[in-house]
């Protein structure tokens, strides 16, 4: 009888191990490939991606990103995920064009691909997700810039890179809006300055711009790094009254500068929510659930999205001022 009991226990242990293995294999593996490792924006996005996995027992979700925001390294990360055989890849590309061949390879391997900040990839990915219509976000940025400049004078500004589609959409829409509506505002560069999402680069270039163009009245930032470093450079030179800085950044990064006046107004969307929503889209595709205009994707600003020509639009812009910056926990 003792031998039978031992055999029974061993059989049960084997069955438990096999059951756990099957359950692990049944989990969807959803991976976000973000732009840049080690910066606040994508640290916050990681929390949303991981939260999605905690909320869904049949999902393992996590985030990776290249050091330095290198597009080639980002492509290699996607290649590695294809080789691993993950179920879905979420990507915020540094250079959407350079990502096209590897995305097609992932799709050919049966992997769901969802992009963010990359409308250019519609029709190539399963869906692109935008927190809002990018043209509207750019107009919002340049309207605040115009107001703070009293709608006249010279201005300059930065993007993460000229290859970053959303940054260039914001700039172009905002620039065109200002040129038409406020003709006394003058953008005095040939194109925006690139900061490569790196604070030291943004800081050095902001100081150089202030030295080179002493008459500027405004600066805009399309990356969180550029906005904050422009504000810091302005503050260090005591130019808060003369030079208006506006742009993209996070509440936690902008609080000090908004309160000092070196940053007049900021705007953003919650990176964690964007990561969560991208994972939700991939999950619904994997489950064969429909994605239609009006559907809720589980986060504020995405309660009734618009699905249009392969792009899913939320309505989740946030405007940050010294009066409200403490209301946001990220």
Task: Give an overview in words.
By secondary structure, this protein is α/β, with parallel strands linked by helices. It has two domains: 27-132 and 274-314, Rossmann fold; 134-268, 3-Layer(aba) Sandwich (Rossmann fold). It has ten helices and 14 strands. The strands form two sheets. It has a seven-stranded mixed β-sheet with strand order 2-1-3-4-5-13-12, sandwiched between helices. Strands 6, 7, 8, 9, 10, 11 and 14 form a seven-stranded mixed β-sheet that branches. α6 (165-181) links the parallel β6 (153-159) and β7 (185-187). The longest helix has 25 residues, at 2-26. The termini are far apart. The relative contact order is 0.13.
CATH superfamily of the largest domain: Response regulator
What string, H for helix and E for strand, traces the elements in order?
Answer: HEHEHEHEEHEHEEHEHEHEHEEE
How many helices does DSSP assign?
10
Q: Name the CATH class of the largest domain.
A: Alpha Beta
Tell me what the CATH architecture of the largest domain is: 3-Layer(aba) Sandwich
For the sheet with most strands, the description reads: 7 strands, mixed
Shape: elongated
- What Rg do the Cα atoms give? 23 Å
| Alpha-beta classification | alpha/beta
Number of strands: 14
Keywords: Signal
Protein name: Autoinducer 2-binding protein LsrB
Signal peptide: 1-24
Family: Belongs to the bacterial solute-binding protein 2 family.
Topology overview:
Blueprint: H1 2-26, E1 28-33, H2 40-55, E2 59-64, H3 71-84, E3 88-91, H4 96-108, E4 112-116, E5 127-130, H5 134-148, E6 153-159, H6 165-181, E7 185-187, E8 193-194, H7 199-212, E9 216-221, H8 224-236, E10 244-248, H9 251-260, E11 265-268, H10 271-287, E12 306-308, E13 311-313, E14 318-320
Parallel strand pairs: 1-2, 1-3, 3-4, 4-5, 5-13, 6-7, 6-8, 6-9, 9-10, 10-11
Antiparallel strand pairs: 11-14, 12-13
